[in-house]
Amino acid sequence: MILYEGEMHGYAIKKRLERTIGKPVSPAHIYPFLSKLAEEGYLEVVSKGRRGKKVYRLTSDGRRLVERIMERMSGIIDGIMGLKVMVCANCGCKIYEGGVEVVVGGKKLFFCCEHCARSYLGETGEKH
Fold it and tell me: Global pTM?
């Protein structure tokens, strides 16, 4: 997924991964994985610079793989978060916590803030 943003040297991938997870990462974990991805056609290795350092870049199959993974992950996350997420009746934004609940005609309406509730219901508390 790191390579989806653009090509990188193995060391840059290692450092980026360490920043992301907040822990040291062994090259023994990274380079065999990169080799396996290249073997399966998901990335290509090119040499760049005077020292001929290896640079890794996703192939079109690799980009499609990342897109499929992200699509599946977002579905899982939406499913988990969907249990707790409300949608503002006025602006449509997602409310993960907090918000304003108003009962109108026996029906609960949820708003992200007092401003949206007032805007939707008007100062009289009735829907426009």
Answer: 0.57
